[in-house]
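TICKET: design request
STATUS: open
ATTACHED STRUCTURE:
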């Protein structure tokens, strides 16, 4: 089969790769019908995730069809169309039993495209298939379901829920890439008074306005804008959605006393934490890897027409066009790309 293979920092190839095989009785083999590229994949290609070794097939967000299942798989069966979650869950360990699947101790967590071969391929092995895939109703398209594999639950759990967004809050989201725009959608579920989005690309600020942001600003306008919207106090919640030191430090500047900073971004370099300014301001900082406990609820909302995901996908490709899709996704300043989707046909 073909797969997108990481060959070391800065090097990737859509190339021949060994076919996946069932290793454990809880595994399933999935034919990949739709897949996308994540900002985390770009971090891997930069060398920011050293656990990923050369030769690894990347990708952790897909929709597909079960073609084979291990003897212990009882919920999904061959022929089922499923959402493949970015998080695998053994379902038995201490963390899984409390719904913290991202911290799974039994061989799960973020493993696809990280510690085992991922889903940017024609076929993929999915560990713990019963607890790591979600059957899709016929009314939900592959494309609309695709973003529930990662960015929608990530923005909801790690951004909005960790940040305790509530009615009447002033929310600032730093970064208007796909995860930041998903955070706009998720934050609107809780009726904040205002959502302000900060980004250095005007095309992405326009996308944020289309997604429901009340105000947008370039970084050099951020402080004045947030202070105006927040009545001179700043933001109740600052959501970091990029993963570089400057954006985290900007969140710390924009949050008000008693506020919350919810870090979503994947950081490959240290960021300075100015405790000399924050220690007396009662600021809460949260980090996290998505657990995907919210995926069933979000899928119900999608099926009921209460959640719009397709507007985040700006470019579509065939699976064999993986290299072109990566080039488009990695250069949004030239392509205007938000999220890309690749399809088997």
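STATUS: resolved
RESOLUTION: sequence designed for all positions
ATTACHED SEQUENCE:
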């Amino acid at each position: 089969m073909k797969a997108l293979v990481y060959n070391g920092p800065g090097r990737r190839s859509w190339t021949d790769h060994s076919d996946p095989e069932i290793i454990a009785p809880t595994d399933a083999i999935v034919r990949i019908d739709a897949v996308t590229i994540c900002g985390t994949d770009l971090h891997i290609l930069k060398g920011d995730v050293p656990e990923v070794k050369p030769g690894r097939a990347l990708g952790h967000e897909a929709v597909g069809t079960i073609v084979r299942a291990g003897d212990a798989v009882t919920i999904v069966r061959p022929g089922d169309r499923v959402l493949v979650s970015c998080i695998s869950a053994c379902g038995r360990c201490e963390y899984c039993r409390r719904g913290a699947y991202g911290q799974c101790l039994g061989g799960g967590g973020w493993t696809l495209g990280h510690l085992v071969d991922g889903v940017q391929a024609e076929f993929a092995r999915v560990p713990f298939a019963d607890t790591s895939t979600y059957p899709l109703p016929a009314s939900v398209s592959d494309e609309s379901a695709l973003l529930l594999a990662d960015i929608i639950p990530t923005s909801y759990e790690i951004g909005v829920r960790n940040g305790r967004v509530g009615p009447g809050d002033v929310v600032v989201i730093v970064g208007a890439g796909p995860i930041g725009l998903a955070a706009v959608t998720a934050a609107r579920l809780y009726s904040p008074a205002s959502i302000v989005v900060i980004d250095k690309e005007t095309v992405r600020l326009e996308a944020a306005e289309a997604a429901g942001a009340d105000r947008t600003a370039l970084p050099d306008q951020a402080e004045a804008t947030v202070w105006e919207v927040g009545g001179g106090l700043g933001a109740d919640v600052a959501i970091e959605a990029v993963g570089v030191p400057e954006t985290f430090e900007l969140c710390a500047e924009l949050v008000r006393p008693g506020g919350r900073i919810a870090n979503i971004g994947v950081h490959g370099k240290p960021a300075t934490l100015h405790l000399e300014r924050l220690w007396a301001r009662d600021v809460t900082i949260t980090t996290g890897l998505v657990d995907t406990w919210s995926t069933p609820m979000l899928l119900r909302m999608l099926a009921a027409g209460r959640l719009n995901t397709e507007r985040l996908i700006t470019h579509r490709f065939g699976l064999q066009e993986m290299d072109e899709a990566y080039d488009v996704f990695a250069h949004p300043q030239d392509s205007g790309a938000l999220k890309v989707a690749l399809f088997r046909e």
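CLOSING REMARK: The domain at 2-150+291-343 is CATH 3.90.180.10 (Quinone Oxidoreductase; Chain A, domain 1). The chain has 13 helices and 16 strands.
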